[in-house]
């Protein structure tokens, strides 16, 4: 079926097993479930959104016609799992992943780190030259096209991107996301201080190109899935004047803000030297108008108790980027402790290219591992994140960080249908799961006496297999706002 076939339908009902994590640590499984999505462009308030969820449903078409008797059968599409596994749970719908921190412009360096690098020398040696090269627009086109298709292929339906300081290249990124159908917040990077002469703007240039970028997205592109995000790179590369000006713009237009915070000890000391008037790194952003409930703070590893309190007070969100933090030897962010301290807006970021993978599932596995290392180091089992908690960070946690928890992150009536279909036995899958391990939808156990001593696997085990053993080969389809964007 093609994209154009699909949009002719005014209603789609998805039918099968739905798995999501509505609360931190919970795993919700709804079998034989029909999820109805309005695809009628003449009703913009409902378009792409879930209209009903019916569990234990035997006939999804009948349920759809019961929901709205004015619908006619030709306009309804029923989408069932791509492969029928004879009543065994091998395939399920899961909310699309949310990447709360990724540098689209660094994608050419994904997998290139430099063994000896830590943050500040890595920026100068690898990152700034790579970003600056994208002012050559044909390069920008290629790189942005690849990173968006690659993240979608890995099940990322929403991403919060950094581009570069270049306005025209940033517009290309916005157009690319529209073309691929990905939901995205896109930030033209602002930096007017302490940066190489080949990759820096004046404060005036930075503000005016940001204003033009916001205007372009809001008034020319006009695509509801795409939002601009105010993006001061990090405190060392921004003057006080620049931070205040773009903070005011964010406030006036209710825009999101993203930046980096407290990633590495040399960086933290540098911020102390540059901003002696501020109490802490976090206080720099607060003092210059950048800290609020729509601010996304990447890393935030080495925070003091006062900084945690300030972030809580301002209700800002944290993008946990465990692959990056390990790769650049920046540190281990104590996510479980943050929850205990009352910070609940925490999501995951791939942080390509300090992170070597653009898969949020890989980041979720890394979050699991980093939390175990913290538990070993601190001799405290409470530091451990569970599989379900990591999956929450990858979906609902990310939605909260983006202040979009009413729109995305789980399957609820009124939310957009952003979804990935997972198939543990897709043709190219490398997951080995044996037939006696797979529970049936009705929960019956295999009738083999030798297996009586085996604990029967349940769907939690299946989800665990997926979490640890899967990759993009198990993402068979992806939808954003009801549109099939990956087949
Ligand atoms: O991981 C990071 N990646 C970056 O590009 C960057 N810039 C400032 N601080 C940063 N940290
Ligand atoms: Zn980053």
UniProtKB/TrEMBL annotation:
SUPFAM superfamilies: Metallo-dependent hydrolases. Keywords: Hydrolase, Metal-binding, Zinc. Pfam families: Amidohydro_1. The keyword Hydrolase applies. Belongs to the metallo-dependent hydrolases superfamily. ATZ/TRZ family. GO terms for molecular function: guanine deaminase activity; zinc ion binding. Catalyzes the hydrolytic deamination of guanine, producing xanthine and ammonia. Residues 94-485 form the Amidohydrolase-related domain. Pathway: Purine metabolism; guanine degradation; xanthine from guanine: step 1/1. Its cofactor is Zn(2+). It catalyses: guanine + H2O + H(+) = xanthine + NH4(+). The keyword Iron-sulfur does not apply. Binds 1 zinc ion per subunit. This is Guanine deaminase. It is an enzyme of class 3 (hydrolase). InterPro entries: Amidohydro-rel, Guanine_deaminase, Metal-dep_hydrolase_composite, Metal_Hydrolase, Metallo-dep_hydrolases. Its EC number is 3.5.4.3. GO terms for cellular component: cytosol. GO terms for biological process: guanine catabolic process.
